[in-house]
Design brief:
The chain contains 7 helices and 5 strands. With 164 residues, the chain is an alpha+beta fold. It has one domain. Strands 1-2-3-4-5 form a 5-stranded antiparallel β-sheet, with no helix packed on it. Strand 4 and strand 5 form a beta hairpin. The protein is elongated, with a radius of gyration of 16 Å.
Amino acid sequence: MALVVSTLKTALIPVFTPATFPSSTALAASQIASAYNTYALLGQSCAGLTPTLVNLSGLTSGLSSSFSGGVSGDSVSTIAQGIADAFSSYWTGALFGPAGSVTLIGGSTALKASLQSYFLSTSGAGSEPSPSDVADSISSYLDTFTKLVTVTDASVPCGPLPIS
């Protein structure tokens, strides 16, 4: 199976819904990381192999650290960079099957820029975006980022190519 952004969006909606907001930044980080992990594990290398080793704990702790200061405590740029770094750490050292490995995480800068722009455009905008709109935007940015992760598979002459 390939990456399906709608599964990520659906899993993220409760994190951004007031009635089901996580009770702490650590819980929010864990829920976002879990949603991304479920989505990302469906990604495939050019040989059709799925991830067998990723850094979920690095993603969770990186997100938790990024969220701990809150928007008022840290600059939007710092938060966006921390989130992009956390998602990059998820793929650092990742393996696909017995011989595939991540050789490039190409979307980190674009993810930071997209998040920063989104945070700035929605802060103080007068009306809050709906949980579905937030999840749609965030999942779209993460989907673009993920599809810029490159896997080389030494057992098959088909890479390096982005995850699909």
